[in-house]
Amino acid sequence: MTLRIVLADDHKLFMQGLMTLLEGDPEFVVVGEASNGVEVVEMVKEKTPDVVIMDVDMPELDGIEATRAIIEGGFAAKVVALSMHDSKYHVLHMLEAGALGYILKDTIFEDLVKAVKVVAKGESYLSPKIARVVIREMSRFPETEQRDFSTLTTREQEVLKGIADGKRSKDIGGDLFISEKTVENHRKNIMTKLNIHSIAELTKFAIRNNLTDL
C-alpha cells in the first residue's frame, strides 16, 4: 500500500530535498506541501493524507497547534514531528497535541522512513534521544498507581521489552517467532493489565522493571 504524505516545513530547500528522498521510495507519494500551520490543516482536509511530517516551528500556526487542529478535527492523518528541537517543551507539547512520532532533523533518512511506516499503523515512534527526554520528564513524577509487574506473562514481558526498545510490531514478532497480529494482541493485553495508555508510559514502566537498557 502506498502511503500518502503531506510535508509541512517553512524551509523550502529542506522540504524539497525531503520530498525528493521520499518520492524515491515506491511506498510513499507526497500529495502536498505546506509552509505554515494554517496551510497544512487545510491541506489535510483537501488531500486526506495518511501521514503528515510536521515541523514544530512554523509561521501563522505552529506545528503544535496545527497538530492539535488535525487531531481534534477527527482527520485520519497521523502526525510525525520532524524538528531540530529536542527540548522537553517542544517534545511534550507535540506529543500532548496528538503527534505519534517525534524525530530530529539530524537523523538519518532511514529513521524517518521507519517512523512514517510505524506511525501510519497507529503506533508510536520516538527516536532514542527523544524517548529519553520523555522518560526523564515522566520520571520526575511519582507513580500515582501501583502496577503489578507479576501480572504479565513471560511472553508479554518479552513484547514489552521490544516496545520499549523502539521496535516495530513486525520486528518484535520476527524476534519472538510470532505474528505481527499476535504482538498487537499482547500489547493491548499489557496496556489493559497495567492500566497504561501510551507508549511513553510503557517505556517508563519497562525501565523501572529493568526490561530495557534505555
Can you summarize this structure?
The chain is an alpha/beta fold. Helices cover 52% and strands 14% of the residues.
Describe the structure.
- The protein has 214 residues and is of the alpha/beta class.
- It has 2 domains: 3-138, 3-Layer(aba) Sandwich (Rossmann fold); 142-208, Winged helix-like DNA-binding domain superfamily/Winged helix DNA-binding domain (Arc Repressor Mutant, subunit A, Orthogonal Bundle).
- 52% of the residues lie in helices and 14% in strands.
- It contains 10 helices and 6 strands.
- The protein has helices spanning 12-23, 37-47, 63-72, 88-97, 109-120, 128-139, 154-164, 169-176, 180-194, 199-208; strands at 3-8, 28-34, 51-54, 78-83, 101-104, 125-126.
- A 6-stranded parallel beta sheet has the order 2-1-3-4-5-6, sandwiched between helices.
- Strand 4 (78-83), helix 4 (88-97) and strand 5 (101-104) form a beta-alpha-beta unit.
- Helix 6 (128-139) crosses helix 10 (199-208), helix 7 packs across helix 8 (169-176) and helix 8 (169-176) packs across helix 9.
- The protein is globular and about 50 Å long.
